[in-house]
């Protein structure tokens, strides 16, 4: 497989025309402000507008410019090796609730897309979890099979079935039936159209920088304008106002990678995911011209902890070629995911002392169902409607158990280490030494700064101190971005914010 060149692009975003909603250039008042036009934000906004609320939805970039536009778009309650762990952490009752919340999300998606006539390529697929080798992960998969049985999950052992479907050895596999896959951007654009048709106010390229909640909740915008509201919902993936509730200390940030390429008609139906290493995820898409496009995902790692991310794409390209005969990679892209201390999302009141600010985050790579579940729960919380999943997802749920405390300590020790490492990093080359399409730490005017030379030869220099909490960002050669290893903020080579929690750009250095 030849070397992958160029900048990453997502099939979901390039296969349909982008949205063009206006930027907010005035002050507003509203019943509810929803910040973030990903799946959680749009589902919440639509639910509330349909119940008669005055709703304003703002997005820092364009609709689906965040993780929803860069996902594998599997709509499934099969979230890796999760149910045995949930039983051990929470007990059977809450583990069953987690499964039911995600299954209800799938049913809601089917009903809603039919009711609103949203064409988003939604189709039923079974979901398979497998191990390709013996060892610890196979033992865990056996325990997961027992958890399926205890929780009454519609599925179970599918070892022989998966062995027939996949071209490489499989030791053991599980299935959950009647899951789904879809085109996430078409879904979100359909929701946006419906939302605005119902009177909702939607503004793109409108970045929130803070939320004031002393009296009337007020969202302050990068433009200097503000929106006053009765309730504010933060659905920005990583909460940009994360100091409220110390969310920066309770979320672990991961990146994973996807490549796509045309596959043969006998490419297996179903959605597949490996439980062992290296991680691999498979599904297909039917393109507009009737061909099959395979999506190959995996290569997960902590965000900001790898600089040669081109190698991750290359590993997936090799897998697609060697196992499925993919002759050429069509597109490649990556996504960022947040994992809470106990693997269950934080959905609800952001802090116990402020009922007016709500949050949805920590979907642990499964935002297509957890995001819908979040929208349904948040809208119920605002309307006073009982919701049996409220306690499970409550961001202020009971104090840290032993395992949570252990994860909390690990996450924050890692942050401290990265903070220290960044402060002692020194450049090994001069800014003048950078080649075309090359970036990294460089020496400039006697200081270590971040540099990138674009394809036209222009040099871009930035200060590498993250504007969130002061960690030093690292160069990501696959995305041509500066990534923070502490809390996952990302910036383009000019310093502009790509991904929060940071809301301010990196400082540009004059050449």
Automatic annotation (TrEMBL):
Residues 426-511 form the Rieske domain. Signal peptide: none annotated. Keywords: 2Fe-2S, Disulfide bond, Iron, Iron-sulfur, Metal-binding. GO terms for cellular component: cytoplasm; membrane. Pfam families: DAO, Rieske. InterPro entries: FAD-dep_OxRdtase (IPR006076), FAD/NAD-bd_sf (IPR036188), Rieske_2Fe-2S (IPR017941), Rieske_2Fe-2S_sf (IPR036922), Rieske_Fe-S_prot_C (IPR005805), YhfW_C (IPR038010). GO terms for molecular function: 2 iron, 2 sulfur cluster binding; metal ion binding; monooxygenase activity; oxidoreductase activity, acting on paired donors, with incorporation or reduction of molecular oxygen. SUPFAM superfamilies: ISP domain (SSF50022), Nucleotide-binding domain (SSF51971). It comes from the Bacteria. PROSITE patterns: RIESKE (PS51296). This is FAD dependent oxidoreductase. It comes from Exiguobacterium sibiricum (strain DSM 17290 / CCUG 55495 / CIP 109462 / JCM 13490 / 255-15).
């Amino acid at each position: 497989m030849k070397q992958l060149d160029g900048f990453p692009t997502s099939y979901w975003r390039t296969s349909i025309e982008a949205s063009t909603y206006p930027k907010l250039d005035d002050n507003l008042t509203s019943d509810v402000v929803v910040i973030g036009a990903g799946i959680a934000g749009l589902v919440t906004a639509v639910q509330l507008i349909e119940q008669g609320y005055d709703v304003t939805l703002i997005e820092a970039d364009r609709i689906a410019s965040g993780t929803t536009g860069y996902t594998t778009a599997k709509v499934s309650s099969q979230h890796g090796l999760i149910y045995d762990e949930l039983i051990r952490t929470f007990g059977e009752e809450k583990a069953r609730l987690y499964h039911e919340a995600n299954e209800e999300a799938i049913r809601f998606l089917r009903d809603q897309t039919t009711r609103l006539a949203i064409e988003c390529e939604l189709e039923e697929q079974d979901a398979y979890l497998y191990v390709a080798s013996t060892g610890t992960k196979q033992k865990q998969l056996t325990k997961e099979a027992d958890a399926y049985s205890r929780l009454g999950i519609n599925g179970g052992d599918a070892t022989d079935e998966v062995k027939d479907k996949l071209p490489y050895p499989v030791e053991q596999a599980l299935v959950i039936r009647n899951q789904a896959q879809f085109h996430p951007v078409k879904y979100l654009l359909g929701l946006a159209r419906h939302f605005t048709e119902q009177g909702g106010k939607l503004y793109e390229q409108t970045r929130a920088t803070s939320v004031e909640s002393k009296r009337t909740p007020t969202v302050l915008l990068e433009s200097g304008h503000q929106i006053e509201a009765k309730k504010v919902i933060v659905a920005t993936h990583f909460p940009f106002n994360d100091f409220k509730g110390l969310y920066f200390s309770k979320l672990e940030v991961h990146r994973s990678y996807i490549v796509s390429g045309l596959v043969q008609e006998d490419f297996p139906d179903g959605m597949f995911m490996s439980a062992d290493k290296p991680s691999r995820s498979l599904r297909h898409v039917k393109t507009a011209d009737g061909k099959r496009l395979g999506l190959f995902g995996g290569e997960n790692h902590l965000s900001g902890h790898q600089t040669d991310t081109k190698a991750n794409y290359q590993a997936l390209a090799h897998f697609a070629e060697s196992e499925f005969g993919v002759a050429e990679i069509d597109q490649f892209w990556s996504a960022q995911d947040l994992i809470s201390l106990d693997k269950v999302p934080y959905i609800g009141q952001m802090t116990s002392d402020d009922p007016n600010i709500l949050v949805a985050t920590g979907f642990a790579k499964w935002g297509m169902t957890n995001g819908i579940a979040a929208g349904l729960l948040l809208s119920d919380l605002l309307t006073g409607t009982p919701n049996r999943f409220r306690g499970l997802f409550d961001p202020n749920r009971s104090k840290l158990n032993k395992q949570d405390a252990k994860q909390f300590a690990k996450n924050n020790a890692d942050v401290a280490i990265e903070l220290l490492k960044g402060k002692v990093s020194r450049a090994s080359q001069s800014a003048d030494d950078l080649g075309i399409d090359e970036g990294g730490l460089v020496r400039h005017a006697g200081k270590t700064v971040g540099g990138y030379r674009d394809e036209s030869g222009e040099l871009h220099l930035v200060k590498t101190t993250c504007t969130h909490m002061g960690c030093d960002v690292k160069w990501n050669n696959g995305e041509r971005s500066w990534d923070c290893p502490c809390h996952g903020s990302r910036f383009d080579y000019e310093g502009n914010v790509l991904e929060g929690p940071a809301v301010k750009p990196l400082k540009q250095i004059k050449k």
